[in-house]
Amino acid sequence: MQTDLTKQDKSFFSNPDVRSWTLVALVTVIWIYLYNVIEPFANWLSYGLLAMPKDSRLGEALAFFFYDTPKLFLLLGGMIFVISLLQTFIDTQKVRVMVEKRGEGVGNLMAAIFGAITPFCSCSSVPLFIGFVQAGIPLGITFSFLITSPLMNEVAFVLLIGLFGWKVAGLYLLSGITIGIVSGLILGRMKLERYVEGFVYDMKPRANVEMVEEKLTWAERISRSWDSAKDIVGKVFWFVIIGIGIGAFIHGFVPQNALTGIMGKEAWWSVPVSVLVGIPLYSNAAGIIPIVSALLAKGASLGTVLAFMMSVVGLSLPEAIILRRVLKPQLIAIFIGVIGVAIILTGYLFNLVM
Length: 354
Fold this sequence. Notes:
By secondary structure, this protein is mostly helical. Helix content is 77%, strand content 0%.
């Protein structure tokens, strides 16, 4: 009898799905423990081991760096794993086909949501945008995807939750999708197809490939999610380190009054100026959000800072250069203008309600 039970136990743990979920449970316990000891460890490292005075600028900067670095990497690794696991149930090719079949309005909504769930920056989303145009999808709908994809990605959403909570992250997600939908509708109504380079329409779209629904086991889904989390964290590693370093400098050395005067609610011009400053810069969300955190800690207003972040990740010179391959300068200028105005209005709205 005991031998039979032993065989059953061995058979139970020899199941790849069971082993995978057991490992996930173990890692989750370790993750929770580490997350709860970050702050006391950062304080001990800064003010204990390194003996920095608690009121010193360098001490505050180091404590910020030692706290935010492991915190953000734990958040990125953990939540991107969860999001990647959910994404294994989403067939992006089917979503794209569904977008093709929808008209204005519903198509813009679906394209914006598609952009939100795909992990592309402003430059890497351009090839998909070109594919949409070649497939004959209306220009306004393709712009809804192009706008939302860099603004809304799992890295931005995860970091916003970790730093500011679900309320701010939810408002940011809603505003990003709204900007994508409304801007796409406006650009679509302007009938700007004549400003797309002619060779794009001359190219024949690639033949439809028959889609075979992939049946994955839980072990395969978990393995893919783990690989995705490692890949994304690896790609943004130095962006995060540099961003936290800049944020730590702002937190420790930049006077609060200086930032409040430039990026506070009282300065009506702070939102458009922040957007204009952000456009020439180029970073992804992982690099810019730690800076956003430090700016807010110094008294900058939420709407102004988020408008700055949106302009950095959603409007960039590299994106404009790549788009120039397929769009004429007039359309690029209109695109930047419409999105810039939408971001400015969103910044004012955040300042009003938060």
